[in-house]
Amino acid sequence: MAVSSVGCTLERLSPSSSYHGCLSGFGNNLAHANAVPIKLSSWGSRHEQCKRRTELRLLKELLKQCTYSRSPFFPTARRGHIMAVATETSKTVEQQPVPSPPKLSAQTPDCQFSPLPPIKEAKRVVLVRHGESTWNQAGRIQGSSDFAVLTEKGIIQAETSRQMLADANFDALFHSPLARSKRTAEIIWDKRTGPVYPVDDLREIDLYAFQGLYKEEGKERFGEQYKMWQKDAANFEIDGHYPVRELWARARSCWDLILKDKSRSALVVAHNAVNQALVATATGLDPIYFRLLLQSNCGVSVLDFTPNADPDGPPKVSLERLNQTPGPPIAASAGTSAGRKAKCRLVLVRHGATDSTLQGKKPATQEEPMNMLGVVQSRKTAELLLDVTIDTIVTSPTGRAVAAAEEIRVLQENAYCLKDYCEPRFVDTIEVPELQDLNLQIPEGESAESLSQDGNGKLNEAWEQAGRAWKKVLEVLENSGEEGDKLVLVVGHESTHVAMISHCLGLTPDYLDRFHLQTGSVSVIDFPDGPSGRGVVRCLNYTAHLGRWAIPVTRPDFKDEEY
Predict the structure, then answer these.
(1) Which end of the chain is less congested by CB atoms within 10 angstroms, N or C?
(2) Membrane spanning segments where (predicted)?
(3) Is 446 a catalytic residue?
(4) How many domains does the chain have?
């Protein structure tokens, strides 16, 4: 679905004012002399309101424990102090009224934002969500509150992400000022030099009265309102605010700051919801895509921006990677998407490398085979997939895809015989003609959007073919296994998989050049409501399992690479 207009422009949603003196770094990098003032939206007062409400709720909870538990850890004198603090906090809240937000149409969540600012040089932005926090662990709704810190697991996750990004050459760091994100940023940034920018607009989504509640408590207290937050977040309203729409406006303002900065490779460390909004606003997706592009703790996403042929036009954007996590995305513990249990799952695998793909070209023929690197990549993928039981493989009929599917099938069927007892299994392999390589070649300087608007016949034909392939794959998923245990593996080509992902998200052919999948990569789509419901993209272009045979999370320095 393309972004449509209801008149809620960025200027209306997020008027901004200059904020000076908010640049700081780590260690000896406390300030950067050449740093520019960071532009923040005027919703800062809303953040303060959320923070004070959460403080008041926690203080009242603590006071309740003091009053009724008779615990020796909370003497009477301390209770009086807590009551005084709670009263003072309550007074502060009353003295800081929050301005009413602009009212949006309740019929549609779509918002139109101004185009991204033009850039003169190619730029890469790497997004990382913070590690697991104490409130993640406890099941509390965090929002933009700042009481949670990283757990031991969260610290380990951050250290793993640091290792994944060890070879990346970052020129600048932008991070949320909230403690859980700031600490993650410190761990990943490590001994790097360069400007460090804490940006208030990178804080997590403002959830107002929800903040500080346990999730079950939210269901009990807010009922239908909480259900709307879960099912229709873009239209969710609380305390007179539309949190997701406000978040989209904040994310869009962050891109002005990040893209106008002189850095060519930037690291951004923030939160689940705001990272989703950053990915969506960069690629032109509106608020209805909230929770459809997953961001796990310490998951890494990569966006590449290249200059427009028109020097005043917005940059071309490619989502190179989505949610590459410290742990495998197909592990049993990864069975929930956006807090909901996935009823079924599709795993998309791109075949291994060929001689043509190593040269950055399309395969010379439909039957070009994998080379030795491609075979190794396929075997590494087969090993990764031993974490799940696969009963059905759907594959393109082209030789390289069939060969990759065969590597996976053989290991799936024989792995159980590696145990003390042999339990033979049989995996069905289904060839689907529509999964053949679309073999789309978008000319340099052109975009899928421009070709689509020009009525390009080959593009439209390929799009229709991918639509038929997507329907057949969903039919296979519907008829496989028991509910809650449905998993189908699809082996094919980058162009076909990207087109099917676009169909899954309800997009148009305009988006065919906005996603990228490398050879041997794994992408995962979950279906919390079954195959007939909307798909949630758990990850795109996951390659950590390939080890030394993987293309790095971030590609070589721009100085060594032509665009």
Answers:
(1) C
(2) none
(3) no
(4) 2
* Co-location of 379 and 249 in the same domain: no
Distance CA 435, CA 503 (A): 14
Tokens standing for residue 140? 């509390």
Q: Phi then psi for 193, rounded to 5 degrees?
A: -110, 170
| pLDDT 10s digits, 432-456 | 999 999 876 554 445 555 555 555 6
Please state the length of the chain: 563
Q: Is 136 annotated as a binding residue?
A: yes
- Any idea what the Cα angle at residue 343 is, between residues 427 and 288, rounded to 5°? 125
CA distance 303 to 142: 26
Q: Quick one: CA dihedral 217, 218, 224, 228, positive or negative?
A: negative
Q: In Å, how far are 30, 172, 268, 297, 523 from 33, measured between CA atoms? A: 10, 14, 20, 33, 42
Catalytic residue among 55, 175, 186, 204: 204
The reply to whether 203 sits in an annotated binding site is: no
Residues 301 and 356 in one domain: no
Tell me if the pTM is above 0.85.
Answer: no
Residues 308 and 348 in one domain: no
* pLDDT tens by residue, 71-130: 322 223 322 332 333 333 333 323 333 333 333 444 444 467 889 999 999 999 999 999
Amino acid at 179: A
User: Does 129 count as an annotated binding residue?
Assistant: yes
How far apart are alpha carbons 419 and 438 in whole angstroms?
41
Binding residue per annotation — 55?
Answer: no
Statement to judge: residues 132 and 219 lie in one domain: yes
131 appears as a binding residue in the annotation: yes
Residue 429 DSSP symbol: E
- Joined tokens for residue 76: 């009477």
Can you list the residues of the chain whose pLDDT is less than 50? 1-43, 62-110, 334, 443-445, 556-563
352/370 Cα distance (integer angstroms): 6
The answer on 314 and 433 residing in a single domain is no
